[in-house]
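Review form for a predicted model. The reviewer records the input and the model, then writes brief findings.
Reviewer: anonymous (R2)
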Amino acid sequence: MTTAKDGTSRSGGSILVDALRINGVDTIFGVPGESALPVFDALRDQAHGVRFIVCRHEANACHMAEADGKLRGIPGVCIVSRGPGAMHATVGVHTAFQDSTPLILIIGQLPRAHRGREGFQEMDYSRTFADMTKWAADIPSAEAIPEYVSRAFHIATHGRPGPVVLSVGEDVLSEMSAVADAPAFKPVAAVPSPRILDEAREMLQTAERPLVIVGGSGWTAEASAGITAFCLANDLPVVAGFRSQDIVDNRAPVYMGDLSLGSSRALTERLKAADLLLVVGDRLGEVTSKSYGALAVPDPAQGLIHVFPGADELGRVYNADLPILAGPPEFVAGVRNLTPLDPTRWRGWRAEGRAAYEAYQRPPEKVAGFDLAKAVLHLAEVLPDDAIVTNGAGNYTIWLHRFYRYRAFGTQLAPKSGCMGYGLPAAIAAKLRFPDRAVVALAGDGCFQMASPDFATAVHHKLPIVVIVVNNGAYGSIRAHQERHFPGRESGTRLTNPSYAALAQAYGVHGEEIHSHAAFPAALDRALAAEGPALIEIIMPTQQLTPDLILSVEP
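Model under review:
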């Protein structure tokens, strides 16, 4: 262990902040609470080199930390107070768990002497978070802080990445200790052997209808470029798993679309028709596998090479013909060195898939009002390749996933957990992390309002993000499900909304409302030129539920 600052005693709060800094943390998101006052006192000291982003709601704070973890590949950090604060942050922990994102949530806790009496806001966080974390623990003393923080970073990043929750008593944070700092965590990853890579190559070469699926977390810009180059060199068709579209340049002729909500039926049929799947980094969860219908459980009809960084996931749902324990970067580095394949057998298969993808990107001719497809296509045309586009959950995301082309790694921030209210906090985190890159958030009216208190955070920091609110006056995705299962019997999905454009204006920033897709390009130009946050409110008719589903009568 390294030595503490000049060997003098520090408070537990100071020890904790130093431990985070040593492990590469430069930003913490959260809502302050009295149970962690020594931490906030330490954060006031610029010598620690860690900034604190004060948020308006713990759910947004935790989602900001989760998004920051996605962008950096090391744990994002959020700090909240006990009880209600911790429970509000739970949704961000759940997102990190389902999205395989490294995250550390720190919760201020009751003093040790008060526990077990149901003291004020008392909870057992180890039990509360057991089913959605890789580890949840209470730090017993100031002396133990460096050890626990080091362990948290290793656990959050090793194997399948995920969240860790640490609670720490206010007395522990006030306690003085001369404990030494622990060194920075050292990430490790499994590397595939030459033998298993040769076996994978042989299986690919004998296939007639191979399909590469990329997804999950743990990717890097180098691995993204590497898998794109590998597929191009071997004319291998590649698709993106759920909300993983930025791993492969969508302009590449080998890219065939994504297996997301609202993806094309033709692509689902192509997935079923494949005779070999090379899956890199994706768990093959419910959405990617099309409710486990495109791939039979536990033995898919397709041959399966499953590459994943966590041993617990290999064989958990699907029995792979060749399971490979490796992270995406390590696997991609290995296959790039293999002898090139002869793609003669599948060249036509790949070309057909690409043609189907391009056809699916053409906007439907029939629309009920605002043509959101044309607006998204315009976004893809004018935004820089490195622009970061964020979203939450709702039917509006179907337009984004279908019509936007991602061109560079690290440009899609979206919750695989399907959580509403994610787009705005993710955009804030992205702009704080990359101030020189364009950041655009798409949100439905219900989605935005779940996160809207932290529009104030964007205003406070003068962050020039663009928020596009698609306002159709309804929980559109639920209404679409109702029309499929209980047609004509809407229940519980209508919303009464404020003017979101006026809300932005009330904050003193740019906000405008548009009713026609023809007005969108000029509105986007004005929003991108704004010096601070800008909001465009798109008024959509409720009956336009998806690009292809239009109700016959306005609800």
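Findings: The longest helix spans residues 84-99.
Further findings: The chain has three domains: 5-177, 194-360, 372-550.
Recommendation: see findings above.
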